[in-house]
Design goal:
The complex is a heterodimer of chains A (254) and B (248).
Chain A: H1 2-28, H2 38-50, H3 53-85, H4 87-100, H5 109-116, H6 121-144, H7 148-156, H8 161-196, H9 204-213, H10 217-248
Helix pairs in contact in A: 2-10, 3-4, 3-6, 3-8, 3-9, 5-6, 6-8, 8-9, 8-10, 9-10
Chain B: E1 3-14, E2 17-29, E3 34-38, H1 45-53, E4 60-64, E5 68-71, H2 83-91, H3 98-111, H4 127-140, E6 145-149, H5 157-174, E7 177-182, H6 185-191, E8 194-199, E9 204-210, H7 222-234
Parallel strand pairs in B: 3-7, 3-8, 5-6, 6-7
Antiparallel strand pairs in B: 1-2, 1-4, 8-9
Helix pairs in contact in B: 2-3, 2-4, 3-4, 4-5, 6-7
Classes of the chains: A mainly alpha (254), B alpha/beta (248).
């Protein structure tokens, strides 16, 4: 009952969306090859599932996604903790980061292909670039914004610098750091498709390229639906984990 | 002398103007004594405590203090640690085995009556309970003196009175030296052996009063009320009886 209460607005929203979509295709008389109705998208989806294309595509995409994301998280968190703690060093690095950040990960694609070739690498690198900046920036700010009272407590009990880092700074910054990881997961997922449209022979991005080349608007739309649903799932899972962390820390997430 | 403050002055610079937070403060505290620093906001009592506790390293004059721990108004607990782990924070800096740490935290959980809350987090406790956790954590490392910076300021008046008894009970049991900052006159009279009254601009000690009433003290006894009247007078809060301008 509680779950129903939580998800019913989403269910109603999606039902209305699909109904409007179906009505538009019925009344508009559009060419289904240009604007497919929901039912043919569902049958396209079924075709992808039946021929075992979809599962493989999802597995490949998620594999590349997590390779890039985990690498970005590892580097972003380590550098973020370092620069948050040594804020003077950050003053030199921050301008460079702010300069690199607005450059779309896609702009890197030609170089990525030239340097790393085609295949799995472009998608992994694009996801890495997309995830790295938000994780780094939010980690730095979460360390530098730690409640000064915690540092006073550390001084009060005479903690060593290493203990201050492990027992105070790390746990105090942790909830905000997970927010950075959460934001980055959504941002980076957006770019998996772009990364896989360059020379990959599998994955959801490849599915899109493939459907376009075969003029299969239903399969194209089906792939888009799957990308959206997976993004929703990733965000939901992370959101739940984040909520638990915030609850344990005695904080409420706005 | 257990705590010795010698000619301590502290000046802050604010927008080019100098402001004397403390000027020529001298104070001595005996071992096992319960001293309250009483005064209005801006009289430098927190500055004095910060100097004694080592949070404020730059000042003029000399102080000598033994090992100390401070209890803050906002309790100074770490929200991601359970009650037990908060009490153990200070113990972890000592060279103790896991069992010794566990045993000591058990002992202090018992002392402040929070044994059944050992695995709760601070946000699950009331304000009074949180302050008891802070007190347990401070006592656990056996400091020679405990500084308390308006420790009960965030509590409602009923919890506050309960906590005053709690602090006295623990103090009598442990015989730790305590210096407590407050701006509550009754609290100072109820708790202290000596009350150090401070006045602002520049922050200095105005007067030191001995409180010789036996504990537990009754807040309504004439002695208590006299003391209170005296302090109000020192702090210039008593209204002079103005003769009326005219009679009808």
């Amino acid at each position: 009952m509680l779950i129903f209460k939580k998800i019913y607005p989403a269910v109603i929203g999606f039902t209305v969306l699909i109904a409007v979509w179906q009505t538009a295709t019925l009344l508009g008389g559009y060419n289904p090859a240009l604007f497919p109705p929901p039912l043919s998208v569902v049958s396209g989806l079924w075709e992808l599932i039946r021929e075992d294309i979809l599962t493989k595509a999802i597995v490949h995409s998620l594999g590349r996604f997590f390779a890039g994301y985990v690498a970005a998280a590892a580097l972003g968190l380590v550098l973020g903790l370092y620069f948050g703690y040594f804020h003077n060093a950050w003053r030199f690095v921050n301008p460079i980061i702010q300069f690199l950040r607005p450059i779309s990960p896609i702009a890197w694609l030609p170089f990525v292909v030239l340097w790393f070739g085609i295949g799995d690498i472009p998608a992994v690198v694009i996801v890495f670039i997309a995830a790295f900046f938000p994780i780094l920036l939010i980690t730095v700010s979460s360390v530098s914004k730690i409640d000064r009272n915690y540092l006073k407590v550390a001084k009060n009990f005479g903690l060593s610098p290493l203990d201050v880092f492990i027992k105070i700074i790390l746990p105090a910054a942790f909830p905000h750091m997970t927010s950075g990881l959460h934001i980055a997961i959504g941002t980076a997922w957006v770019f998996i498709v772009a990364g896989e449209m360059v020379g990959a022979q599998s994955g959801l991005g490849f599915l899109i390229v493939d459907a376009r080349q075969n003029m299969r608007a239903d399969l194209l739309m089906a792939a888009m639906v799957v990308i959206g649903l997976l993004g929703l799932a990733l965000d939901g899972i992370f959101g739940m984990a984040e909520k638990r962390i915030y609850a344990k820390w005695g904080m409420t997430k706005k | 002398m257990f705590v010795k403050v010698d000619n301590v002055s502290k000046t802050f610079e604010q927008n080019g103007a100098f402001f004397h937070a403390l000027r020529d403060v001298n104070l001595e505290i005996e071992k096992g004594e319960f001293v309250c620093l009483l005064g209005p906001s801006g009289c430098g009592k927190t500055t004095l405590l910060n100097i004694l506790a080592g949070f404020e390293p730059v000042f003029d004059g000399t102080v000598s203090v033994g090992s100390s721990v401070t209890i803050f108004q906002n309790f100074g607990l770490l929200p991601w640690r359970t009650v037990r782990r908060n009490i153990e924070l200070g113990l972890e800096t000592k060279k103790l085995s896991k069992q010794e740490i566990r045993g000591t935290s058990d002992e202090y959980l018992e002392l402040v009556g929070l044994k059944s809350f050992a695995n709760h987090y601070p946000h699950q406790l009331s304000g009074g309970m949180r302050q008891r956790v802070a007190i347990a954590g401070a006592l656990a490392i056996h400091p020679e003196i405990i500084f308390m910076d308006e420790p009960l300021g965030a509590l409602d008046s009923f919890t506050r009175m309960q906590m005053q008894d709690e602090i006295l009970r623990i103090w009598e049991k442990r015989k730790t030296t305590i210096m407590l900052i407050t701006h509550d006159i009754d609290e100072a009279i109820y708790l202290s052996d000596r009350i150090v009254i401070m006045s602002p601009r520049p922050g200095k000690i105005q007067e030191i009063l001995n409180v010789s009433m036996p504990r537990p003290r009754e807040r309504n006894l004439p002695e208590f009320l006299n003391m209170r009247a005296k302090i109000l007078e020192i702090l210039h809060f008593t209204k002079e009886q103005q003769p009326p301008d005219y009679y009808l």
